[in-house]
Structures are given as C-alpha cells and as structure tokens.
Amino acid sequence: MADFLTDIKTLRERARREIGKGPVTDAYGADLPRVIQILNEALATEIVCTLRYKRHYFTATGMYSEPVAAEFLEHAREEQEHADKLATRIVQLGGEPDFDPDTLTSRSHAEYDASAGLAKMVEEDLVAERVAIASYTEIVQWLGDRDPTTRRVFEDLLAQEEEHADDLRGLLEQLPAERQEES
C-alpha cells in the first residue's frame, strides 16, 4: 500500500461521519461554491441555446430550410440533454440548479438570437457554439484534477459542441452565397 493513501479505517469513519455530504468527500479538491456557480452558468447557456435552436427551427423558411431546420431541432434536443446533465451534476454536488427565466440570458455565455434569415440563424448558432467551446475548454482546464467527474461532464459537452460547430459550418458553406447575403 502506498504511503499517500488514507487507511481504510479512517476512510470508513470519515464516510460515516460526513454522510450528509453525499459524493463530496475530503478528496474533492475544487472550490465547491465556484464549481456550482460555473455549472449554473453553463446550465443557463444550454437553456438559452435550446431556446435559440427551437426558435430557429420553428421560424426557418425558404427553399433550403428543411434540412437546416432538422439540424436546428436535433441540436435543440441535444442542448436540452446538456442542460439536464448539468442540473444533475449541480444536485449531486449539493447545489440547486438555477432555472430562473428572469436571469437566464445574463448568466448565459451565449446570446439568444432572433435572426430572420436562414444563413444568419446558422451563423449566429455557430457563433454561440464557438463561445461554448471556448468557455467549456477553459472550464475543463480550470477543473484539472480537482473535480474529475465535473471535468468529464464538460469534456462530453465540449465534444458535442464541437460536432455542432462542425455541422453548422458545413451548413453555412452549403447555403448559396446570394441566400447568405439576403439574410
């Protein structure tokens, strides 16, 4: 047994004594209140992105709108799944997920968008995905080894946000230039 490991008796006693802390043990190395705040900001980001994608899905029009709208709907569903994962992690850490609609946009890293043109919708969604990618990358780096579970949550979200950005870039490249100029 390595010298740096806590003995089993101490682990058991501590686990029993601090049972109310759930999964947060003495081995947790991150600033818990700050992690919960960051998770709530990411939750707001995912909710705003879900709403933006839903709006774009319902308002997309024009000759090229059908496949683009389908992509918006798929991304909306995946962003909602992200929000659910973040809310679950907040609760696991003993926090409360903040779904307050009055403060969603001020806490969100990404902006809500009500663009009318199809290409502009895709462009704004791509910008939002790039914002999420940048912020989630920073969060992953900040968490490091101090909270590996939350880091993995963000790594999973980051991978999907990168897929979204790639999808949107592909859609934007497929839209005719004159259509892009009209929007």
Automatic annotation (TrEMBL):
Name of this chain's protein: Bacterioferritin
Keywords associated with the record: Iron, Iron storage, Metal-binding
PROSITE patterns: FERRITIN_LIKE
Record has Metal-binding as a keyword: yes
Entries under PANTHER family matching the protein: BACTERIOFERRITIN, DNA PROTECTION DURING STARVATION PROTEIN
CC terms in the record's Gene Ontology section: cytosol
Organismal lineage: Bacteria, Bacillati, Actinomycetota, Actinomycetes, Kitasatosporales
Natural source organism: Streptomyces beijiangensis
Entry superkingdom: Bacteria
SUPFAM superfamilies: Ferritin-like (SSF47240)
Alphabetical list of Pfam families matching this protein: Ferritin
Sequence ranges assigned to domain Ferritin-like diiron in this UniProt record: 29-179
GO molecular function list: ferric iron binding; ferroxidase activity; heme binding
InterPro entries with a match to the protein in the record: Dps-like (IPR014490), Ferritin-like (IPR012347), Ferritin-like_diiron (IPR009040), Ferritin-like_SF (IPR009078), Ferritin_DPS_dom (IPR008331)
CDD domains (UniProt xref): Ferritin_like
Cofactor needs: heme b
Annotated residues for binding of Fe cation: E46, H82, E129, E161, H164
First and last residue of the signal peptide: none
GO biological process: intracellular iron ion homeostasis
